[in-house]
Structures are given as C-alpha cells and as structure tokens.
Amino acid sequence: MLLVIGCLLLAGCGSSLERRAVDGLVDSWTAGPFYQLPDPVPAGAPGTVVRSERLGSTPDGATAWRVLYHSRDVKGADLLTSGVVVVPDGPAPAGGRTIVSWAHPTTGTAQRCAPSVGADPFDLMEGLSDLLAAGYVVAAADYPGMGAAGPPSYLIGVTTGNAVLDAARAARAIPEAGASQRLLLWGHSQGGHAALFAGQLAPTYAPELQLAGVAVAAPATDLGDLLTADIVDVSGVTIASYAFQAYSTAYGAPLASILTPGGVTATPTMAQLCLLGQNAQLHDIASPLVGHYLAADPTTTQPWADLLAANTPGAAKLGVPLFVAQGEADTLVRPQVTAAFVAKECALGTHVTSKTFPGVDHGGIAVVAIPSLIPWLKAAEAGASQPCERQ
User: Fold this and answer.
1) Mean pLDDT of 361-386
2) DSSP result, 332-345
3) Which of 135, 170, 194, 300 has its CA 20 to 30 A from that of 258?
C-alpha cells in the first residue's frame, strides 16, 4: 500500500480524485497527534486557535486547515474543540470574505465520529463547492466532544451554538483565509439546531461578528415533539441515546428516571458508536429496545422536560432573516414539526423564507436546497428579506 501511495505521489496523481484519495489517507494517518489536548490547556478567549494544520485532501481550487480552538459550554466553562476551515484559492476581495459557518448533521457523539477526523472531511459539507464558488470562507465545527476530547454535546443548544460561532472566529484567526466579520449560518438536521442557537446567541456571545442570516435544512426544533414522533423506530432510539447520554453528562439528569433497565445499560454503548460506519452495530443494539426503551415520558418527567424545553430553539424573534428547507418525505424530522416552528417564528416577527420539497427525504434535503440557498444567502448579505414567505 505504501508503495502504491508513493508511486501516485511521485506521478502527481492521475486525477483530482486520486490526489484527494492519497492526500486524504495521509491526512487521516497523521491526524492523531493533532487532536491531543495540550497539558495543561492554555487559557484563551472563545475562538482562539491553539493549533492549525493544512489539509492535503482539499478539493481543487481551495485551501483548508484543521483547527483546534477555544469555545465555551452551556455552563460557561472553557473547552477546546475542533473543526475545519476551507477557503477558495486566490486573493480575498477588498473587505475580506464573508464566512459561512456550516453545522453538520448527526454523525455520532464520540471523538472518532467528528467529520474532520475522516479521510474526506469535506464530504459532509453540503453545498461546499457552491459556497466556495460564491466566494465564501466555510468554517465547519465538529462540535465539542468530537475530534478533541470532551463531554458529549449532542443537541445541547448553547454548547453547539457557541462552537459554531467560535469556528467563525477561528477562521478569522487564520491570516491566509482573508475572512471578514460578516457571517452567515447554514446547518442541516442536528446542525440546523446548532445554527439556530448560534443565531440566537450571536448578538451577545459574538457581537463583533456581523450576522446577516441563518439558513437551515430539516432542523431539529421542538425536541419534545420530535422525540415523541421518532422514538417508535430504530433511528429514534439511536438519536435519543445520543441526546440522553449528553444531557445526563452535562446536566446530571438520571437516565434511570426515564429509561428501562435495558435502556440504561444500552445508552452509553450506543453513544460511543458513530452513525456513519457503525450503523449495523447501532441497529443490533437499538432494535430490541424499540417499544422497550422508555420507562417514563421525558416530555413530562423532570428534569428532562425542562431540559428539552431549554434546548428547543425559537424562544424569541431571530434578529436576522431565516431560511428553512424541509423535505415532505422526511420521516425523521417530520414536516409538521418544521411547519409549526416556521409558523411560530413568523408570529414572533422573524423574516422567514420557508421552502418545502415534495418527495425529498431527510438525507437529501440540504443538497436539494442548495440552488435556492445560494441566492438567498446573497440576498441576506445585501439586507433583502420578506416578512414571511412560504413556498
């Protein structure tokens, strides 16, 4: 294998795909030391970069770095988390490039489940080529506890929202990125949840960033309604295990107060498995628990009910335009839950552009939405928006 890689490198790689495959292997083999936390961890303001590393597997026409940077969790504690910054080649325009902070969908909660750890950290960045072609810097947070060691943060809105904002700050700390203070947020599924919280938090947590708009695809919004709808199948049990383990760790909420003995035993094991690559193992554990996972309703059992409510986005008007894409064939984030969220945001006075796509499922919605997203981002940057537009 090493001989083959060496030959390809010497040959300059016969194609872009070959080059990226080889460079991706090199990137993944050398990733281990990058994620090791310094001891002691130095103090730093949110967004301060502790370590950066150029990635060789970047798509043609772009340059990228892994970054390890400071952020803050839901209790205000300092932590280090990781991510990727991608920049289109060429000089930045006068005034710098606008940042799009991309929040990824569910991949798991363990360290090895972080998108930046893999051989192709760009694969999950839905719309990356279009965003780069539009001149944006793309900052992609892994979320705390993924990549760099730390407690899980799954669907903990303040923790993941802060990490998304601090990824943008980290991008600005890389001189070659040419990143300005202008910011747009874009997220899918779990990432939609993180992006919405980032949008809520930005005015107070990162006031130096000039947020112009928030865009989401099939976002996790009303956590109680989504849990009730999804817990009846394997996917619902799996997603719930990620959230319950994260909440138990972050808030000290007892698993035994809502889960069956089998659920209590299985939850920490499921939380260590990645959704991508270990799906079969997750299904083996989760399948017998369908219908036998919950012992009590988390939406009515304390402290779980309050935690679900506190981590549900949309409590107040969003001060910037909001784009929401939803597939009508989505069986994970149900269309009716997203529709209720849109109606609530419209009632609060948020300027919402809502688009639904017939026949599109949960996995496909972000990609399908890209042709509508890019012009919307440009319009949001220019300050154009409609009070409430549903299509």
Assistant:
1) 95
2) SS-HHHHHHHHHHH
3) 194
Cis omega before residue 303 (within 30°)? yes
- Could you tell me the pLDDT band of residue 110, with boundaries at 50, 70 and 90? very high
Taking only the tens place, the pLDDT of each residue in 242-264 is 999 999 999 999 999 999 999 99
Helix spans in 70-146 (H): 128-133
What is the amino acid identity at position 10?
A: L
Distance from the Cα of residue 137 to its chain's centroid: 16
**pLDDT one-digit tens code per residue, 263-286:** 999 999 999 999 988 999 999 999
Rounded to an integer, what distance in angstroms lies between the CA atom of residue 81 and that of residue 357? 34
What's the average model confidence in pLDDT over 295-322? 97
State the Cα–Cα distance between residues 345 and 188, nearest whole angstrom: 18
Please name which of 167, 297, 157, 312 lies closest in space to residue 231, comparing C-alpha atoms: 297
Backbone torsions φ then ψ of 98, nearest 5 degrees: -70, 140
If phi over 0 gives left and psi between -120 and 50 gives alpha, with beta otherwise, what is residue 108? left
Amino acid present at 74? V
* Tokens, residue 62: 């772009």
- Write out the H or E segment, with its range, that includes residue 99: strand 97-103
Inter-residue contact 212 to 323 (CB < 8 Å): no
Contact yes or no for 166/205 (Cβ under 8 A): no
Average pLDDT over residues 224-251: 95
Q: Count other Cβ atoms within 10 Å, centred on residue 204.
A: 7
Is 39-222+312-390 in CATH node 3.30.460.10?
Answer: no
In order, the DSSP letters of 48-72 are -EEEEEEES-PPTTEEEEEEEEEEE
Using the predicted structure, report yes or no on whether residue 372 has a pLDDT greater than 80: yes
Residue 7 has pLDDT above 60, yes or no: no
* Domain segments of the chain as ranges: 1-30, 39-222+312-390, 223-309
Q: Distance between CA 80 and CA 49 in Å, rounded?
A: 9
